[in-house]
């Protein structure tokens, strides 16, 4: 397959490596010219995935127009840049959305952003528990591949499958997107618990109650419960809430140690999507009538409106209720 990858951060690069390993002709678009040069000249993505020697079959470009002949495009830019970049493309090829977030200002999921920017392109979502480094190293990984058009989704799942990369098909696009967006916010919360030394009971409680929030919000937006309990929801929630390999978790650790969000986010080259998703998730949840006290707490911490002690007291003193 002639595959295009839009975005050469850690995840786009890892996905390019998986695809090239299976023999696909892979062209990856990078935002930074130095990334284009490093991939083409030295077969390495020095800023974002330095430890992985890349397949020589991966070619890089800084020109979005060069992607016009691609049969399918993996869209792996950070969520807040996705609409602007897709709007400049010239293609009706299927778009496989891999960013995890909600657009600030519009409160749109990535599938809505993509449909508005490229109305002629069929849309699929690839999401799940996938640390880029592990995927690039060929460690076993399973993902959700969601598409409303079952025939297309099944075809894409078969084209992307590799011996160590296993897509599970779903037709619940919204469910797959909500899991990935919400888990990043919950991972920040779990990082806070770690950084503040609040213990493993608290972390397990947050994963469990965070899943309740993800489910409430997802059901309100039309997601299916089984998708939220699958790889793209609970699976990814467990991964990122349990490991300092997660950028969102490690951002939370800094907050838990009392550092201000502004300091932690300044000059950061890699993206912690939960920091952008938390405020817009709070707005979207309010609009949908879904109670999300943990997401509220993360948004307040990030905005500097409350400190760790205050948000923990707030969460623990809520009225007792049925589970
Ligand atoms: N890294 C991972 O393990 C995984 C990441 N994802 C998701 O993939 C998406 C991309 O994340 P990563 O590849 O990890 O990014 P990264 O943190 O490795 O790199 C940052 C990316 O942002 C791009 N960027 C910075 N400023 C930009 C601008 N003004 N316009 C366009 N692009 C710009 C950079 O070129 C680079 O591709 C995110 O939504 C993330 O949640 C999903 C699964 C796994
Ligand atoms: O989405 C991811 C794993 O599935 C990556 O998580 P972080 O962005 O928190 O590193």
UniProtKB/TrEMBL annotation:
Protein name (Swiss-Prot/TrEMBL): Glycerol-3-phosphate dehydrogenase [NAD(P)+]
Pathway, per record: Membrane lipid metabolism; glycerophospholipid metabolism
Domain Glycerol-3-phosphate dehydrogenase NAD-dependent N-terminal: 4-151
NCBIfam families assigned to the protein according to its UniProt record, in alphabetical order: PRK00094.1-2, PRK00094.1-4
Coiled-coil features, chain-numbered ranges: none
Residue ranges annotated for the Glycerol-3-phosphate dehydrogenase NAD-dependent C-terminal domain, each copy included: 172-312
Enzyme type, top EC level: oxidoreductase
Gene (name only): gpsA
EC numbers for this chain: 1.1.1.94
Function statement: Catalyzes the reduction of the glycolytic intermediate dihydroxyacetone phosphate (DHAP) to sn-glycerol 3-phosphate (G3P), the key precursor for phospholipid synthesis.
Active-site residues, Swiss-Prot/TrEMBL: 183 (proton acceptor)
UniProt catalytic activity: sn-glycerol 3-phosphate + NAD(+) = dihydroxyacetone phosphate + NADH + H(+); sn-glycerol 3-phosphate + NADP(+) = dihydroxyacetone phosphate + NADPH + H(+)
Subcellular location: Cytoplasm
Organism (species): Sphingomonas quercus
InterPro entries cross-referenced by the UniProt entry: G3P_DH_NAD-dep, G3P_DH_NAD-dep_C, G3P_DH_NAD-dep_N
Positions of sn-glycerol 3-phosphate binding: 100, 128, 130, 183, 236, 246-248
NAD as UniProt keyword: yes
Family (UniProt): Belongs to the NAD-dependent glycerol-3-phosphate dehydrogenase family.
């Amino acid at each position: 397959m002639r595959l295009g990858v839009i975005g050469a951060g850690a995840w786009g690069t890892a996905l390019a490596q998986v695809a090239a390993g299976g023999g696909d002709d892979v062209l990856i678009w990078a935002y930074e010219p130095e990334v284009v040069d490093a991939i083409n000249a030295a077969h390495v993505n020095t800023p974002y995935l330095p430890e992985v020697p890349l397949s020589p079959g991966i070619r890089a470009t800084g020109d979005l127009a060069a992607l016009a002949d691609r049969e399918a495009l993996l869209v792996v830019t950070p969520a807040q840049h996705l609409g602007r970049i897709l709007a400049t493309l010239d293609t009706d090829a299927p778009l496989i959305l891999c960013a995890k977030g909600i657009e600030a200002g519009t409160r749109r999921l990535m599938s809505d952003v993509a449909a508005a920017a490229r109305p002629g392109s069929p849309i699929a979502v690839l999401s799940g528990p996938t640390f880029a480094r592990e995927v690039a190293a060929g460690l076993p990984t399973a993902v959700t591949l969601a598409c409303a058009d079952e025939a297309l989704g099944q075809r894409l799942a078969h084209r992307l499958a590799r011996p160590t990369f296993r897509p599970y098909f779903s037709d619940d696009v919204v469910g797959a997107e909500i899991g990935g967006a919400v888990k990043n916010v919950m991972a920040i919360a779990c990082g806070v618990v770690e950084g503040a030394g609040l213990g493993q009971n608290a972390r397990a409680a947050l994963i469990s109650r965070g899943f309740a929030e993800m489910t409430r919000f997802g059901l309100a937006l039309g997601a299916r419960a089984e998708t939220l309990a699958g790889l793209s929801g609970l699976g990814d929630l467990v991964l990122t809430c349990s490991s300092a390999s997660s950028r969102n978790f490690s951002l939370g650790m800094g907050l838990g140690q009392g550092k201000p969000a502004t300091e932690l986010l300044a000059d950061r080259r890699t993206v912690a999507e939960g920091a952008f998703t938390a405020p817009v998730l709070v707005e979207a949840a309010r609009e949908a009538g879904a109670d999300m006290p943990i997401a509220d707490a993360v948004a307040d911490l990030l905005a500097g409106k409350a400190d760790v002690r205050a948000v923990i007291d707030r969460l623990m003193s809520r009225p007792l209720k049925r589970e």
